[in-house]
Each structure stands twice: as structure tokens, then as C-alpha cells.
Design a protein that fits this description.
The protein is α/β, with parallel strands linked by helices. A 5-stranded mixed beta sheet has the order 2-1-3-4-5. Helix 1 links the parallel strand 1 and strand 2. The radius of gyration is 15 Å and the shape is globular.
């Protein structure tokens, strides 16, 4: 497992808001996330609609993040940890929308199959930290 760098918007050790866009979290996965980044609040599950080939992903992402903002109004001052939707293009659009409304990228949960039909949290990726390090390489 990999430990991420703390999200710069919150002090290390502060409680993070855990958001799932699709699948819920098992007790074991919650423990794994807590081990990696510290305390998290009660997981919040945001329903992601089925996306068709002709759907505008920007509109879908905006509606998904709008639902999150209804439930957590002050995203810009929160430490967000998200489990992205499975559709990669929608995940990218959700990340852009989150960055736009929060002013920073969230931490992202990465799960991998343990081979027995279960998924473990293997990493929490600090996207904002990655962005800052990439900017230094310009």
C-alpha cells in the first residue's frame, strides 16, 4: 500500500470527507483508507446515472458534483477523498468539475482485486500533489 502526501488544503490528521461515485465501501476498505490517510467521516455515496453514448459528459459530471455540493456545500474548504466513477471519461469530467468548484484536486482512492472476488484499497493518490510536482517540471 502507498501513503499519499496530505492534501494541502487541510492540515495532516484532519478528518476527510469520503465520497463514493458508484460503489460503497466495506469495513475493511474503510480501515485501509484510515490507515493510509487518517480519519475519515461517514462515507457519502453519490449515485451516478447510466451514461449513454450520446450523453454530454460535462453535463453529467456537473449534475453529479452538484449533488455532492448539495450534501457538502463548502467543498473548497474540505479535504475530499473520492472513489471515482468506473467510466474513465466520466471520471475525468468529474475531476475537472470538482477542481473547478473546490479549487483543488481531491485525493483519489485506488482499489485492486485481491484475487478472491474482493477489492482492497491499495493507494490513495494525492492528485493536487501530483499536479504541483508536475508544474515544477515545466
Amino acid at each position: 500500500m502507498s501513503v499519499s502526501v496530505s492534501n494541502p488544503t487541510e492540515p495532516p490528521g484532519s478528518r476527510a470527507d469520503l465520497v463514493g461515485f458508484g460503489h460503497g465501501f466495506t469495513l475493511s476498505q474503510l480501515e485501509q483508507i484510515t490507515t493510509l490517510i487518517g480519519p475519515v467521516g461517514e462515507p457519502l455515496l453519490i449515485k451516478v446515472p447510466t451514461v449513454g453514448a450520446r450523453d454530454d459528459l460535462a453535463v453529467v459530471a456537473e449534475s453529479v458534483v452538484a449533488e455532492l455540493r448539495r450534501r457538502i456545500p463548502s467543498l473548497e474548504s474540505r479535504r475530499l477523498v473520492v472513489d471515482l466513477p468506473g467510466l474513465s471519461s466520466l471520471a475525468a469530467a468529474v475531476l475537472v468539475e470538482l477542481h473547478g468548484v473546490a479549487g483543488h484536486f481531491p485525493l483519489v482512492v485506488r482499489r485492486a482485486s485481491s484475487g478472491d472476488g474482493h477489492f482492497n484499497v491499495v493507494e490513495v493518490i494525492d492528485l493536487d500533489g501530483l499536479r504541483l510536482r508536475a508544474r515544477a517540471r515545466r
